[in-house]
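From the pipeline queue, job 12 of 40. The input is one protein chain; the requested action is below.

Action: predict structure.
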Amino acid sequence: MGLVVLVSVEAADTLEDILWLSNKISGLRLFDDDQGVMNLSVMAVNGDILAVSQFTLHARVKKGFRPSYIDAAPPAISIPLYDQFVKQLETETGKPVQTGEFGAMMQVSLVNDGPVTIWIDTKNRV
């Protein structure tokens, strides 16, 4: 039991975004309690986290049919921020966070237990 977190970094992201996001993810109440209500966090259920770098989440598809990834940060920015994010999640949860290899072609499988997929954008906090 746990979370698969797909992470995309943009050039405007900062350490403040990392701290806010890791706190939000570790505290989100997404798991059912004894009454079947989504009332427990990943920490409360002692769940695991898999963080996968996924720059394609920043794809622009408004114009034409070929996605543009100009909003995704280049590796010089995104790799250090992604690494900091993973370390901060480990600090928040007190558990190791599993990862793949940044930027590599990977085959990731997941079972979505219920219709829960949440998009979190650190630029839309308010």
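Job complete. The chain has a mean pLDDT of 90.
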